[in-house]
Amino acid sequence: MSEIVAELKKVDKNYGKIKALKNLNLKVYKGEVIALLGPNGAGKTTAINLLLGLLRPNNGQVRVFGQDPKNANNRNRTGVMLQIPGIPETLKVREHIKLFSSYYPKPMSLPAVLAATGLESLENRLYGKLSGGQKQRLHLALALCGDPDLLFLDEPTTGLDVTSRRALWEQVRKITKSGKTVVLTTHYIEEAESLADKVVLIKQGEIIAEGSPSEIKAITAATKIRLITKIAHQDIKAMPAVRSVSYNGVATEILASKAEGVVLELLQTDKSIHGLEVRTAGLEDAFLALTQKKVA
Length: 296
Hints:
Layout: E1 4-15, E2 18-29, E3 33-37, H1 44-51, E4 59-64, H2 72-76, E5 78-81, H3 93-101, H4 110-117, H5 132-144, E6 150-154, H6 162-176, E7 181-185, H7 189-195, E8 198-203, E9 206-211, H8 213-220, E10 223-228, H9 233-237, E11 242-248, E12 251-256, H10 259-269, E13 274-280, H11 283-291
Parallel strand pairs: 3-7, 3-8, 5-6, 6-7
Antiparallel strand pairs: 1-2, 1-4, 8-9, 10-12, 10-13, 11-12
Helix pairs in contact: 4-5, 5-6, 8-11
């Protein structure tokens, strides 16, 4: 078993009467990319803030590199990419990197940071003149300045278009190949599937599933059916083998454990069905199916 870099052990965290995390156990191993997924309010940000030492648990233990997250040495070994407001727009890319590097005893060199994030050609550009994707790459560069062993990426591609998002993914892949441990939070399921070795699904403060993207998809072992039909959703939900039903525009999307029987019953019930598609369910489908279940 690989070395445990960060851990939440039987952690409870409350905000007044609200239970944000409930007896949560989470292990992050050296060299892995772990994605925390869950609906809004699931507890992802609370878990990250505990690992960063920004919060204390009501019960349980939080350890990073085997120590208290607030340990000064831990801070030097940890990098965080946040949604950063208020960055001076009149400083150049290299000036921002040099400033952040000065906070660390053994920072990465400027050329190394620029190369890791694909900013070599932009080092003399003012922050205010960068595109959205370029700004996100600079935020990633600032998280790397201290040459961290553990990197937290909090919604790293929020607000980016598809091209910029995929460009940032390539920079993250380059970084993870160097052996750094990465904890990723994202609302883009495709992002988690593309980057993560392990996915952890959190709902209402509890882990409801964890494993590789393939293992998470295998939990549901389902098929996705898409069609346009007059059949009411409550009637589809009552069909054997149907796990979930939702709208996607005018189309109805069904997750089913045995597609053949469901499709046959649908066609027998509604002769006007059209736009029928059947395919293997993806990680997003598994996410929806698992998070729509009631937590016991």
